[in-house]
Every structure is written in C-alpha cells, then in structure tokens.
Write a structure and sequence with these properties.
The protein has 308 residues and is an alpha+beta fold. 43% of the residues lie in helices and 9% in strands. It is built from 13 helices and four strands. Strands 1-2-4-3 form a four-stranded antiparallel beta sheet, sandwiched between helices. It is globular, with a radius of gyration of 21 Å. It starts with 7 loop residues before the first helix and ends in a 16-residue tail after the last helix. The structure holds flavin mononucleotide. The site of flavin mononucleotide has 11 residues, from β3.
Amino acid sequence: MPDSPLDPHEAAAAVLDESAAAAVAALAPHSRPTLATVLTHASVRRFAPEPLPDDVLAALQAALVRGPTSSALHSYTHVLVRDVERKRVIAHLAGDQPWIDHAPLLIVGCADLRRAREVTHARGYRYTAHDLRMLISATADLSVGLQNASLVAQSLGFGTVLLGGVLNGSLEIAELLSLPQRVVPLVGLSVGRPSGDHWPTPRPRLPLPLLVHHETWSLDAASERELLAAVDADTRARGDFEGRRIPWAAMGLGGDDPVAHGDYGWLEHTARKQGRATWLPQGAKVDVDLPAQGLRVSSTGDADEPEG
Ligand SMILES: Cc1cc2nc3c(=O)[nH]c(=O)nc-3n(C[C@H](O)[C@H](O)[C@H](O)COP(=O)(O)O)c2cc1C
C-alpha cells in the first residue's frame, strides 16, 4: 500500500526552524517511518467508498487498545460502525458532517465509566470515585487509542479525521448504539482511503513558542500578541478562514458584519467561535447529556469572569 507521499522535511520545517527540521528529517523517513507518519499528518475529509480490508481492521483494533491506560483501568470502549444507515444518522447527529457517512469506517470513542463501577459493586464496595476526575482520565485514555489508530491507518495509506462533533449528539448516539448507562460517546474517528489517493498538504500550526515552553511558562503578553498578530496576518493573506466565516448574526450583536472580506483571520474566527451568542440560549448540551447517561458532573457555568 502506498505511504503518504508528503515530505517529512517540509512538514517539520513548518513547525521547527530550518536546522532543527533538517536534523529531524535526517531521522526520517526510511529509518524512522513513525516520525514521517506523525509529521505529515493532515486530516482527510474526502474518502473513497471501498471497505477496509480485514487485516487493516484488525490492525486498527490492536492500535485502539495497545496504548497506555490510566491506572490500568481501561476506562474506554470503542464502537466500530460500518453500517451505512447507522453512519448516516451519526453524521447528522454529529453536526451534519458528510465525511462521517462517506468514510467506510467510523470509530466511536466512548468514555466507559461503567465497567470499573460494576467491578467495584461486584466486590461489595461502594463506588466513591469522582466522575469528573474519571471522565478526564477516560478522555485521555480514549484519545490515546484513537490517535494510535489514526497513525496506524495513515502509515498503511489510509486517511482519518477525528470527530469531536460526536459530543454534540452524545445521548442520541448512545441510544443508537445501544450503549449501557455510563458509556458515553465523546470523540469519533473516520477512516478510509483518501478519495483519488489525494493527501491534503499538512495544515499550518501556531508558532512553537506559543505551544511549547521549556521548564516554566516563558511567554510574555507582548510576545504572545505579536506572534498571534503574525499568525492572523498570514491567515488573512491566505484567506484560510473566509470560507468558514461564522455569520455575524450568530454573535447576537445586531447590525452588519463589521469585518470586511479579507480581514477575517485566525483571531476573529477563534473569537467568534468561542463568543457566539447561539451557544447561550440552550446551554451546553453536555450539561444535559452527561447526567442523562448516568454521570455526575457539574458545569462550572459561565467562564467569562475576569481573573484575580
Ligand atoms: C479533539 C478533536 C476534535 C475534532 N473534531 C472534528 C470534527 O468534529 N470535525 C472535523 O471535521 N474535524 C475535527 N477535528 C480535526 C481538526 O479540525 C483538525 O485537526 C484541525 O483543523 C487541524 O487540521 P489537520 O488535522 O489537518 O492538521 C478535530 C480534531 C481534534 C483534535
């Protein structure tokens, strides 16, 4: 099967300075295929319809469970969905994402806060674990599995896209998959051959100093603003977010959109995503869905309070 034709040196140079990228590229791709796979990652959203071969399906299942798991609890269950109609309904519930039903395989990653509780009760103890704490480690567990499966898929010539949109339909998807209480769909992964064997070019990342610090927090506010302004200018120049512009009406502020065509970059897009008014009336759906699935977690409410 063909590997991704993308160049690991180019991908490394997109996040590291040139000498570091050259040093990393010298490790890849032949002697270090994992590195090449990781560096050339790009989400795929156009899939060829043919089903995945059984050996690939087996490799994905092994990858889903071979990663580390917090306290050896295995607080996740993954559900593999290949049925066309079931995928179609999930694609709708996850925010009308067509690549979910176009991909031959959907993996629904679920936090499983049921299994350990059953075991605790079966041994005659009260279950005293804290659900929010457990949900956080379950989310880490299942993300490790999905990312490992994604890397294995990519290394075998298949494309993937992670699907946080599954959380939008968590309760309904749980019903559709006959999940017991406390097994909660959180993140999905679509897997399939990229349509026309076309691999997207790796997409840009924020600059490394924003995302990785050494020893302690090492970024002052002015540098942060400067780095983000440069990112914004680049994304505006390329028009990266114009096609995904969040409509002004969603902000609930009235009047016409004050941001002209060509001025809508990463900063405005990020601010609109996190600040849109349309989230407010119905509240966060997770506040309803998680308790309905048997979890005892409570929202911290409105985070828009100044610190200090
Ligand atoms: C936790 C998580 C949830 C995501 N959810 C979705 C999703 O619901 N739909 C989607 O199309 N992409 C989703 N993505 C993919 C991101 O949009 C993508 O990783 C990002 O835009 C960067 O692009 P790249 O992966 O091609 O580098 C998700 C990624 C992560 C890590």
